[in-house]
Amino acid sequence: MSIHANPNDHSAWAAQCLPRTSSKINALLQHLGEEHPGDEDVISQEFDDALHSAWVDGESWAVDYVAWRTTYTDLVDGPLEGDMIGL
Fold it and tell me: Is the distance from CB of 61 to CB of 22 less than 8 angstroms?
């Protein structure tokens, strides 16, 4: 399963996370949207890169988001965490 998704999908997922996680993700997506207006592919790639970097660094918002997505994704498609660490 690829973690690349429409930026709006990340906002929808974030809304189901802790408020600090949701706020961080939405702020990041807003910033990326301003940097790359209308280019969802670039926004998604930049988001994934930022998420991966933050997750590797142990930032709480990224750990929370990946844990939540992994739990849900394991039930649906397969391990998101494996994608995050490059397995």
Answer: no
Q: Rounded distance, CA 87 to CA 50, Å?
A: 18
Q: What is the DSSP string of 5-27?
A: --HHHHHHHHTTS-HHHHHHHHH
* Domain range annotation of the chain: 7-84
More confident residue, 16 or 63: 63
The pTM score is: 0.70
Give CA–CA dist 63/27, Å, rounded. 17
> Roughly what angle, to the nearest 10 degrees, separates helices 60-76 and 40-56?
110
From 63, 27, 67, select the one nearest 47 (Cα to Cα). 27
The per-residue pLDDT for range 33-54, each reduced to its tens digit, is 999 999 989 998 999 899 999 9
Report pLDDT for 87.
Answer: 37
- What gap in Å lies between CA 22 and CA 42, rounded to an integer? 21
